[in-house]
Amino acid sequence: MTTSSLPRAPRRDAAANRESLLAAARIVFNRDPSASLEAVAAEAGLSRRSVYGHFANRDELLLELVTAGGRRVASALESVTHPDPLVRLALIASTLWREVESVRAMALVAVRGPLAPHTVATLGSIRANVRAAVTEGQADGSMRRDLPAERLARLVENTALAVLEDSTEHPLGARDGGRLVMLMTLAVVGLSWRDARDFIDGWAELAWPGDTAWPDCTVRPVATGSTTDTDVTHG
Amino acid sequence: MTTSSLPRAPRRDAAANRESLLAAARIVFNRDPSASLEAVAAEAGLSRRSVYGHFANRDELLLELVTAGGRRVASALESVTHPDPLVRLALIASTLWREVESVRAMALVAVRGPLAPHTVATLGSIRANVRAAVTEGQADGSMRRDLPAERLARLVENTALAVLEDSTEHPLGARDGGRLVMLMTLAVVGLSWRDARDFIDGWAELAWPGDTAWPDCTVRPVATGSTTDTDVTHG
DNA sequence: AATAACTTGCACTGTTATGTGCAAGTTATT
DNA sequence: AATAACTTGCACATAACAGTGCAAGTTATT
Hints:
2 copies of one chain form a homodimer. Chain A has 235 residues and is mainly alpha-helical. Chain A has helices at 12-31, 37-44, 48-51, 58-78, 85-100, 104-112, 116-122, 124-139, 149-169, 174-188, 193-202. The longest helix of chain A is centred in the first third of the chain and has 21 residues, at 58-78. The radius of gyration of chain A is 21 Å and the shape is elongated. Chain A binds chain B through residues 144-148, 150-151, 154-155, 158-159, 161-163, 165-166, 170, 180, 183-184, 187-195, 197, 229-235, and chain B through 144-148, 150-151, 154-155, 158-159, 161-163, 165-166, 170, 180, 183-184, 187-195, 197, 229-235. The first copy, chain A, binds a DNA duplex (30 and 30 nucleotides) through helix 1 and helix 3.
């Protein structure tokens, strides 16, 4: 049975178009956050008019986009747990990088723009996690104690955003970006650059997914020789 | 002699109004960078129409505002010279803080917004100085060498901006802000938090102007006891 | 006091964007 | 093939905001 008799089921291509619009919006708004719906519709191969067949207004489209992205990121971050608060922080940073890398500009708008409150709500758990890791790290002495936890946590967040921002204009490989964001995070919480580097290289879980883990290293150069004091990036 | 005979001198109050408009623009645009000229004129106690008696258009007003601010900052930074690149970087950071503190939002717009190219041009010397200090610091081993100088320099800049940004929402005393911006700068270039703290406290020229300098210390707590591991800020 | 320099209000144009109503088309579904 | 579900193009309403012309006011200067 297909539900009742008279009212017909919604067409399947409509849903597809809706997705097209969201995808287009992601692309267009990622290029220019204040782009018009005209531009979005064009990117989707639809007419401006039809946007309103799927979304009540611009804000609703934006909201849906940001919410979806936020949920994706939040869920990816849920799996981040580790006893060591420094590792946890580094993991949060690099996970965030991985999730957001392809939508940097959008993400920045979501966090900095008028939708910020909503985004923050969706991503509240991250903030809480960062905050908790920082507090814990300060308590066990692994993180700097000369700043109140709240401020330090915000600085950690903003630093990560700064890396994202910079990489929007000066692209960075996915892997280099992940490493850089960890390095900067650790720097902000108080580690020297050598300590941060060694710390990252010392924990298998902080290695880039594709790479062979530290213990059974075959390909990857170890922490001595050419890798030491070598650029993370070439550009 | 008052120039020629027929053409009269421009009225002095006109110049005053022009200043009023610039001052108003600084206030209004600092609150909302995309505010209307209506709002600016209102703040200045003038009519929207009269804005066009002084500036050809919105952009010209904006430009003048940003240029003036830029020049002020640039000139303040010209006096920053020091043999030690770390000290120089810290001085640039705290000088910048001092100059920009009261116009944070505007400054952020000037740097991030559409006028960025122009601002960058005006402030080109800063960028060059930062760049030079970083290169020098990497050469003498006092700064991290795992990142190319360009990127590290940008990270230094962006970190300073991040502190500015954070302090817009979560105010910071002038002095605490200056110290924080130095701490973060040193952190980014590779110092551990303790090293950064000791470094700042070790150089008289990095002390806050009002404070008595290190050598003949009378009031200020020295680097042992209560100051160690103590909050820079209370809020 | 004469007068040029300013300011003001109003009306108007132009631009850019959002959002709606509707008739006429197209397409998936039954 | 019938038909409801979508899409489309067009016209239109609305809303901010920028920028201009002009006539009538006000005010500093000479």
